Amino acid sequence: MTFKLAASPHSHQRRTTKQVMRWVYLALVPGLLTIIYFFGWGVIWQLMLAVITAWVAEALCMKLRGRPIESAWHDHTALVTAILLGISIPGFAPWWIIVIGTAFSIIIVKHVYGGVGMNIFNPAMAGYVVLLISFPVQMTSWPLPVQLSQIDLSFFDSAVLIFTGYTPSGYDLEQLRMGADGMTMATPLDSLRTALNHEMTIDEALQQPIFGSIAGLGWQWVNAAFLLGGLVLLKVRVINWHIPVGMLLGLAVPAALAWMFSPDQSVSPVMHLFSGATMLGAFFIATDPVTAATSNRGRLYFGLLIGFLVFAIRTWGGYPDAVAFAVLLANMTVPVIDKYTQPVAYGHGEKS
Amino acid sequence: MSYKSITWQGLWENNPALVQLLGLCPLLAVTATVTNALGLGLATLLVLVGSNITVSLVRNWVPKEIRIPVFVMVIATFVTMIQLLMNAYVYGLYQSLGIFIPLIVTNCAIIGRAEAFASKNPWRRSAFDGLMMGLGFTLVLIVLGGIREVIGNGTLFDGAELLLGDWAAALRIELFAVDYPLLLAILPPGAFIAMGFIIAIKNLIDHYREQRATKPAKEVTRVRVTAQ
Description:
The complex is a heterodimer. By secondary structure, chain A is mostly helical.
C-alpha cells in the first residue's frame, strides 16, 4: 500500500473559476432584465460592446505576455468584468465610453498587475472611476425610467443613439432625459443631493416624480432584483455572507443614526439600501474574491468599511453615488486588514 | 570618472527620474503639457548645474557635519535666482508652474547629486554631471508631458509661446481634435500610469540590451566515433 502525500489545501471547492464566474453572470440576469424594463435597451448594446472589447483586450494581453490566447476564453473573469462595467454605466452613453473603460480595466488594471488573481484593484470599478473622472458629463447622463420618458426607443433606435449620438428621429440624449415639464431629470440620489444643497428638506425633495414609492422609480426594483440575484449566489455558496452583510450594515447603521437625529436632512436607510449601486455593489462587486480580504473576519471588516465609505461619500462627498470609490479605497486597505485578521493556526496563539 | 561615462549615467543608466526615482513630485505635477515640462526641466537643469559647481568649489571648506544645511542653502539661492528670472522674463510660464518653481529646492535629485557627486569631484566634472543629470531629468519630463498632452488634449506644444516667445505659437500641433478631453491623462493618476509605463519600457530596453550583450554559449559539436 502506498502512502500518498497531498499538499494543502486539503479542503477546497470543487468549482473551477469558469463555473464560479458562470454563476455570477447568471445571477445578474434578474437585475439586467429590470434595467431593460425600466431604462430601455441601451444596456444590451453596452454589454455587447463591453464583452467584445474585453475579449479583444484579453487576447491582446495574452499574446503580448506570451501565453496561449485561448486561455482568454477559458476562465470567464474578463467576461464578468465587462458585464459589471456594462451594467454600471448609463445605458445610452456614447460607444467609445464603454470601449475605453473596458480596455482600461482589462489592460491596465488587470494585466499590467499580472493578470487573473494578481490585480490589486477591482478591474470593473477602476475602469468605472477612470470613466467617471474623465467624462463626468457622459457618465452622469442616466436615462429617465421609460415610464417617465416622453420618447420611446426601440432596440435598434438605442443602437443608433449610442453610435451616433442621435436617435433616428433626431433627438439627442439631453432631450431624452427631459420629463413632461421639459426639465432634465437627474437620478434619485443626484436630485436628493441637489435638493439638500438648495436647503430643501427630504420630504420636499421626495415630491419629485423621479421618486417612486420606496427609493426612486425604477432604481428600487433594479436594486431588489440584484438583491435576489445576490441571494441566489449566497444559496449556491459562490459568495459568503460576510462581505454583503458587512457592506449593507456598514451603510444602514450610520444612515439610520443620521436619519434618527436629523430626519429632514438625511436620506432614510431604506433609500440608501435601494438606490444607486448599493445591491449590485454589495453582492457582485465587493465580493470579487481577488481584491477582497482573505479571511472571513477580514471580509466582514472589508464589507463594513465599504458600506461606511459609501455612506460617507454619499453624505459629505462630491459625488452622488460612491460604490466605485468605496470599493477602490477598501481594496487599498486589504493588505492591512489581512495582516491583522490572519487566523491563528491550531495550537498557536495565547488563548488556545 | 570619464565624461563619457558621466553622460551615460545621467541620461540613461542612472537617470534621476527613471532609475533613482527622485524628484517625482514636480515630475508628476507639472507634466500635463510639454511646455510646462520643458520649463520646469530647464529650471531644474540650471539649478542643478549651478549648485553642483558651487558645492564642488566649496567642498573642501565645508565641515562634514553641517554639509546638508550648506547644500540646501546653496540650492535655495540658485532656485531663488531662477524664480526671479522666470518671473521677469517668462511670466506666463511662471504663473502656470506656480508653487513648483520654489519647490525645486526640495527636489531630491539636486541634493542627491550634490551629496553623491559634487561633494567628491572637481568642479568641471561636477558641472558636467549636473548638466547631464539635468538633461536626463528634462528629457523624461518632456516625454511624459508629450504623452499626457497627446492623450489628454490631442495637442503638442500647446502654450509654447509662454516659454519661448511669440514666434513659438506656431509650434502648436493639433494631432486630432477631441470633443471631450480624456481628463485622466491630465490629472495626477494619468501621470503615475504614464510614468509607470515609461519605466517599464526603459527596463524592457535594458533587458534586451543585456540579452544581446551576453552571447549564447558555444555549442560543442562532437565527432561521431561509433558506427550507426
